[in-house]
Fold this protein.
Amino acid sequence: MFVYIIRRILYAIPILIGVNILTFALFFIVNTPDDIARIHLGQKYVTESAIENWKNAHGYNLPLFLNNEKEGLDQFKKTIFYQKSLKLFAFEFGSSDAGQDISYDIKQRMLPSLAIAIPALILGLLVDITIALLFVFFRGTYIDTGGVIICVMMMSISALFYIIGGQYVLAKVLKLVPVSGYEAGWNLIKFLILPVIIGVIGGLGSGARWYRTLFLEEINKDYVKTALSKGFSEIYVLFKHILKNALIPILTGIVVLLPLLFLGSLLTESFFGIPGLGSYTIDAIEQQDFAIVRAMVFLGSVLYIIGLILTDISYTMVDPRVKLND
């Protein structure tokens, strides 16, 4: 197991390097440091001295890859690629283009993102799987057909509809919860109820339909027919056998959601005024703060790879047929 984990981590290093180089190319080769300076200065006619002053203040005055004015390792260290890109591997995110400490901002905004993402993920999984099992139990009936039609309709509706509609009905009309906002402590719960509910409802259509497909694939297999022939009830077989054997694709789907636990939901946090990493990223894009965007892209890649490794390890816990070769 230990050897397998180390091997997967070593496999992840070239992937992260590739993501890092591609991100660097997009930000510093397609858009040069001079272009970045002009964007932030926000003036129609910017003098060369103003551009140089901004670059000097933000560390963009260095060469991209090789500094011929230095000697030894400083030829590589005193470059934009080392200062702005390679340091990300040590999780040294540096300062934003506005001068704020990115690492400090991430630590402060991570908890609000988790406060929304974890309840929405857990409740969403429970609701989606329960409804999918209900569809399978009543497969071929009007309940199943009508449920699938409703799921397709829900998938076709934009997430903005659920957000705006939920705010209008539950917050403005019924006045059950605040429209938006965020507070520390126990008062936080009242601000999280609405975004969590909308998060669960927004993903219900695609989630329930996908899990239904997984369970239908399992229900026609021989082991299910054998269990039913032995006199086990269909409900017992659904929860005891089918659900267990479908856990591997379920876990694979959860991996895609793991980065969202930390990076937050871009739309949800922005509309509900949650100071999480999702709204942090949106604000950075609007302000064209490329330092923050680079950091969030790299962090998202790391979290996704960690999720893949955890999923492979969890396979052995839910299916004894899967073995990790050391």
The mean pLDDT is 82.
